[in-house]
Amino acid sequence: MLQCALNLECVCGTTSVEYCQIQKNCCKLINRRTPPETISEHNDPHRIDWTELPRNLQEAPDFFTGQAALRLPEQSNPRYKLFWPIRNGWFNEKDYLKQEPVIP
Q1: Are 16 and 3 in contact (CB under 8 A)?
Q2: Per-domain residue ranges for the chain?
Q3: Integer angstrom CA distances of residue 67 from 1, 7, 71
Q4: Is the omega angle on the peptide bond into residue 73 within 30 degrees of 0, that is, cis?
Q5: How many CA atoms lie within 13 A of 75 on its CB side?
Q6: How far is CA 1 from CA 4, 16, 38, 73, 102, in A?
Q7: Looking at 7-11, 27-31, 91-95, which range is the least confident one?
Q8: Exposed/middle/buried for residue 100 (C-beta within 10 Å: 0-12, 13-18, 19+)
Q9: Model confidence over 44-102: pLDDT tens digits?
């Protein structure tokens, strides 16, 4: 007979586990009984500050650089294409039609 890995009394009242089905059922019971924890925005360590785009398309910039470019929303309007001028320590020449954007 296998012992419970946490050595705690399970929700279903057993301390030993005979097979995986008991563990699965216990996990399901715990997940149903436990309400999800809501994390407020100011306490969220994984919160992403997306780049704000103006509503008027005429005011939208032609390009973004650095962190602002990496934080563009995927469904942005207008659509932007992300370029990587340096890859693996070398100039990325195959993604560009000319060398001017890569080498100023």
Answers
A1: yes
A2: 2-33, 49-104
A3: 55, 47, 6
A4: no
A5: 0
A6: 10, 7, 39, 52, 65
A7: 7-11
A8: exposed
A9: 888 888 888 888 888 888 888 889 999 998 888 888 888 888 888 888 888 777 766 65
Which tokens belong to 86?
Answer: 């340096």
Residue type present at position 75: Q
In the numeric block, which tokens belong to residue 71?
Answer: 């934080």
Identity of residue 78 = P
pLDDT score of 7: 46
Given pLDDT bands bounded at 50, 70 and 90, which one contains residue 14?
Answer: low
